[in-house]
């Protein structure tokens, strides 16, 4: 990862064409399923609200821990970015969408 900009390894992984195209396909399938099945849509909406609430609560509870461990996270992120650089170099298929 470049030293002038702190990259997040998760963001980099999500930006890989193979990952982003898979996520887009899953999102389209999820949305079309919700649209086609009203009962499924109501179940999904309840689930989505629950996940959002749980996520907000988890972030609020974890904030002090995250602040204390920030230096360790930075080191782990840096190592993971270097590993991802190596994978991208060795596996060119990561740069192509799933359909290719």
TrEMBL record:
Gene Ontology CC annotations of this record: lipid droplet
Keywords recorded for this protein, A-Z: Lipid droplet
InterPro entries documented for this protein: Perilipin, PLIN1
GO biological process: lipid metabolic process
Keyword Nucleotide-binding: no
Subcellular location as annotated: Lipid droplet
Short name of one Pfam family: Perilipin
Highest taxon of the lineage: Eukaryota
Key word Transferase present: no
Family that this chain belongs to: Belongs to the perilipin family.
Protein name, entry field: PLIN1 protein
The organism of origin for this protein: Neodrepanis coruscans
Gene: Plin1
